[in-house]
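Table S2 (continued). Query chain:
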Amino acid sequence: MEVRKTSIKGCFELQPRIFEDTRGKLVKTFHEGMFSEHDLSTDFTEEYYSISKKNVLRGLHFQLPPNDHVKCVTCLQGKLFDVVVDLRKESDTFGKHLAIELDGEKGNMLYIPKGLAHGFLVLSDNAIFLNRTTTVYNADSDTGIHWNSCNINWPVKNPILSDKDRLMTELKDFITPFN
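Corresponding output:
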């Protein structure tokens, strides 16, 4: 697996090896030894996937301390415009974002440290998004910032949103608990 640094400290694009032949392909999305070798968390406690249609935007989500977590995300099928925003007040990139395309054919993943908000927009007709986290979902800690308050150049101007995401706090009004 190739581990690529991004513009946000602690956030990495992971490119696994893909084994492909006439029967199909195999993509190994997690290997404890490889993650440990690169000082990446290996204590994932929850994993889930969502299926979304084109122009659905989910995010920008995170959990507050003490239930904040590391995430490792990928697109199993389709294509996503995947985004993180740095909410760590001591970070050189506080308030800045990173956007990357996650592609089910390419198999790439994004490793997201604690203190970053995360969201994605579906670019393909449908997409299957896989999320692995180091803490279990906690409704009392679940929150986010408004998807359109971080100067992100989203490829769609009027995405399909949940009521929850439509009503999130803007970044400028968010008081961060992340160091």
